Amino acid sequence: MTESVGLPLAFFAGVLSFLSPCVLPLIPSYVSFITGLSLEDAGARRWVALTHASMFVLGFTVIFVLLGASATALGTLLNYHRVWLERLGGALIVVFGFYLLGAFQWGVLARERRFHLQDKPVGYLGSALVGLAFGAGWSPCIGPILGAVLTYTSATATLGQGIGLLLAYSLGLGLPFLIAALAIERFLGWFQRYRRVMPVVTKTAGAILVLVGVLLATGYFTLLASWLQGLTPEFLRSRL
Predict the structure, then answer these.
(1) Of 90, 167, 211, 239, which has the fewest Cβ atoms less than 10 A away?
(2) Contact, 152 vs 211, CB < 8 A?
(3) Four-point Cα dihedral 130, 136, 142, 145, nearest 10
(4) Where are the beta strands (DSSP E) in 95-183?
(5) Helix, strand, coil share of the chain (percent; to 5)
(6) Residue ranges per domain, the chain?
(7) Torsion 99-102-107-112 (CA) sign
(8) pLDDT digits (tens, 9 = 90+) for 52-95
(9) How many C-beta atoms surround the C-beta of residue 167 within 10 A?
(10) Handedness of CA 227, 11, 132, 148 (dihedral sign)
């Protein structure tokens, strides 16, 4: 039943990862790097840029889904201790939330983990490989949010649900990237206006993680899911 809440939350977490200070300012550089085009040429050759961006998104989606499957397998292995797993997982998500709120510094999350590829492999396959590298070494800003999704997955999801949660997360992260690649000029104009509120978005993400972590640790997340399930129209509920 919690998947009806978990999928939207995972998608929203992906969007927040895209809006994070470690990802959003680098989007123009990523678009130029994976396409091999200047931003002006990428704007003129939109479908080429979109195809490269799609392969990049596919690459990091593969990594994130594999991480989700691994987290679910661990949760299944510890299924006998599921209640304690949810409590500890909720506490860890709260820690991630306070980190984004700036309450403390954590060296493990502060160190850069992205793979720096000096020369991108040629072609669309090369864009997918860059996506794999991005997914395998996410930046410190993505780490707490993705870590929270993986923690929630290991504590509550079956294998199929875990894969679905990470697909939803990848869609939330990848869809804005595809839109940016397709309309890079408009993205640049929007970013100039958005950058002023970027710290507020990061703090908001931290507050949401704290709330979700508390609900999961105290067992109220399942009650919230049940309540939302009752509010869902029948024709939608049958498809969840």
Answers:
(1) 239
(2) no
(3) 140
(4) none
(5) 80, 0, 20
(6) 3-237
(7) positive
(8) 899 999 999 998 988 888 888 777 766 666 677 677 877 887 88
(9) 19
(10) negative
